[in-house]
């Protein structure tokens, strides 16, 4: 039986982020407390009788086979597996997923019975965990394309807590020990002889699961990419990335029956001179071992970029987390008025 402390912790964590909408079935799960939540796990989700629920987290997730569909999920970590309890609407979001999900019971659609599908990744199938920049997300990888999931926590605390719990649970697994490692010097351990480039920092857990953290070069590569997008306006040595955060861009639709807004996932990067929004591929990089060809799109695609000197004002909402910020820029973009006075700035 779980301890009182664990039940209290799981109850506290069982809260859907206020800015994300979920189906009725997941709202039901979010309403469960303490022992009712543990009993729900054992009667509806757990695959083995003696497994223990150790951690619960709400997070947006992405699957390797459907990289464009971000879906809300209740992530449950037990001593045997990681369970992703998903919104049923996710199955219908992309017609290419039918082979992935093998959905058979579509006759329930019109009834009052609310379905949730559960994606299971057994801990024995887990091979690596890639932690994203500044712990904003992490990717869990198994042995095939079906077993790669990214959790977009957008929160370093949630990422850190989940990784700690996962390491603790993996320590309980009885796996055959690895052969004794051959002593290596520093350069052969971290350097690639072909490229001379430092590899990402790896921690190999006693269960043989790799935990891979980004190294400093990744920030350098990002700074170089940002400088390229700036068309050489700034010299690279002075370019510093001050902030990297996974956020949402709010697109407001007026004139509809209800004034609605949609949230578009973006990566916000702030430098000493510019503010950038990127569309980032959180699931395809670094390339998994089985990948035969590189992904169809780059890791970072520029969506918008503005100079800080053109920033007129910043409006802050008064609501609690997550905070809404509105950046208001001058209408004249990328034009220094003193350079070219022939432009009709007062026309249309």
UniProtKB/TrEMBL annotation:
Domain (PLEKHM2 PH) ranges: 114-178
Coiled-coil blocks: none
Record's keyword terms, sorted: Cytoplasm
Subcellular location: Cytoplasm
Gene Ontology annotations for the cellular component aspect, listed alphabetically: endosome membrane
Record GO terms (molecular function): kinesin binding
Limits of the Nischarin C-terminal PH domain: 241-347
Superkingdom assignment: Eukaryota
GO BP, one annotated term: regulation of protein localization
Cited InterPro entries: PH_domain-containing_M2 (IPR053015), PH_NISCH_C (IPR057714), PH_PLEKHM2 (IPR057288)
Pfam families per record: PH_NISCH_C (PF25625), PH_PLEKHM2 (PF23142)
Predominant location category: cytoplasm
PANTHER family for the chain: PLECKSTRIN HOMOLOGY DOMAIN-CONTAINING FAMILY M MEMBER 2
Name of the protein in its database record: NISCH protein
Organism the protein comes from: Tychaedon coryphoeus (Karoo scrub-robin)
